[in-house]
Amino acid sequence: MNSPQPNILVFNPDSSEAKAYAESVRHYGFTSVKSASTTEEANKLLSETEVILGWKFPLELLIQPVASSVRWFQSTGAGVDDLVADDSIPVDITLTRIIDQFGSSISEYVFMFLLHVAKDGSRMRRAQTEKLWDPFIPASLAGKTIGVAGLGSIGSEIVRKARAFDMSVYGLSYSGKQAALVDRHFTPGQWSEFVGELDYLVLTLPLTEATHHIVSKKVLISMKSTACLVNVGRGALIKEDDLIDVMQSGHLHAAVLDVFENEPIPKNHVFWTMPNVLVTSHLSGPSTVDGVSHFFAENVKRYLAGKALAGVVDKERGY
Amino acid sequence: MNSPQPNILVFNPDSSEAKAYAESVRHYGFTSVKSASTTEEANKLLSETEVILGWKFPLELLIQPVASSVRWFQSTGAGVDDLVADDSIPVDITLTRIIDQFGSSISEYVFMFLLHVAKDGSRMRRAQTEKLWDPFIPASLAGKTIGVAGLGSIGSEIVRKARAFDMSVYGLSYSGKQAALVDRHFTPGQWSEFVGELDYLVLTLPLTEATHHIVSKKVLISMKSTACLVNVGRGALIKEDDLIDVMQSGHLHAAVLDVFENEPIPKNHVFWTMPNVLVTSHLSGPSTVDGVSHFFAENVKRYLAGKALAGVVDKERGY
Q1: A23, A21, A1: which is closest to A12 by C-alpha?
Q2: What tens digit of pLDDT does each residue of A255-270 get?
């Protein structure tokens, strides 16, 4: 039976972040909230912990008998590929991720860059730097075709905004549940057909065994040479070496990359300096203390009421 | 009586542009189309001209007896403040401007810059230049308040896209006809109240006696110091000296200016180098040959059918 006030452990390697999350969760009326930012601190608190709200938690701790009271692990992020891949989490601990929280910010990021690429924002900035009156005719998103791979809460929000920009919208998804959202829907067996007509391909898929390196040379060369690739999902959706090869051969107009196979990318990584590769630092869908705490508080209420939690991870499915 | 094929004169100071417009108009089935790019050329063709499709036309020609066969002047642009101000155009020549043509491109321009300013695109670009992994939390347009001054076809399209970005939308217009589009509507007597709560103020108004220098120091200091001003209307909507003073005193987060009191702005203009002033070269709503020719061809059909033309300019109103 759940206690009316579960013992909550907030973990974040950054101790000020950990404290900020704990403080915010307390504001929702939960009083038994402790925070930890090191393996040692977490280990000491585990025996009395029922719920963990965690980021980069030392998962190996969960396999110990001292963790037997832990019933539920809430990640502060949307992507849980690392948690799914780790066998240390006992099967009787429910794993949840943040959902329905990142669509707004990630779709704003996507359209910021789509507009920048389409309308040649770089040329506009350069003209100002050179004090050059340069009244060229910018291209438009209107009438172009966008393909959204992954039609969960993030992909759906990108589709909604693409409609406001009068784009044709194609989609590829694994479940097919949201197929009616898009003008043409493709299944995972149809990647080459899916990408062939696109002006913009946006990846919002979770990283699973099925999606790992799904955007490899075969898919990339099926894209139009004038197309633009945007990745706001996970770095390893793209086989980065293939992307580098293909772009260095002059294929693709641009790539906008917010996520990478290894983050942070090192100073000597070729992405930093490739023309037409726009790099950002995994910031398109930030987990904010307020947003995560609100989601978590709502989930704790469901937990106490014995209701189904939001964002439960299906380990078989991979997210 | 109108002839079944009116004699059309296409004028543009750029002779290749003039020829491109003429060629495009001929594609719509109009055979009597001539082009000119100098005052002399235009003067020679005037006696046999019934309709002018023109940009920067030497208006002084129209006051001559030789121009007495000219019935209709179609501007290739949306803004006709220069044509309205010029007394050379006889009252019996109908003046039309392009309408319903620029909403798509101008609204894309507006949201490109709103997203750039809101999410600090400059910081993202700087991080890449410095090869710096910099995962800051970008702000959002969602939940912010945008004010659109002018609710014609351009303003309405900005309102529509602002809805897709989940913004609160205020509007100010002179006619009030589109007041229902926005959450709060203001009249021309309410500028200070209108701008007081805005995070973004976008000017799409035509330039008339009533709107000339309407955004002066009084309006600017009524804005929040964190607000952003975007001008895609006409330069002289803003009293530029006041804007410079106010921004140099640290007021306003940013100004995005596509239009200026005098264009092109000279190399030594302070706007080029002011921090937080983003300058572009009157390119947000380009008149394209295809777009203008299509609009004009539809209007010629109305002309031949004796129907009301689209985009008729009311000289009293000023646009």
Answers
A1: A21
A2: 999 999 999 999 999 9
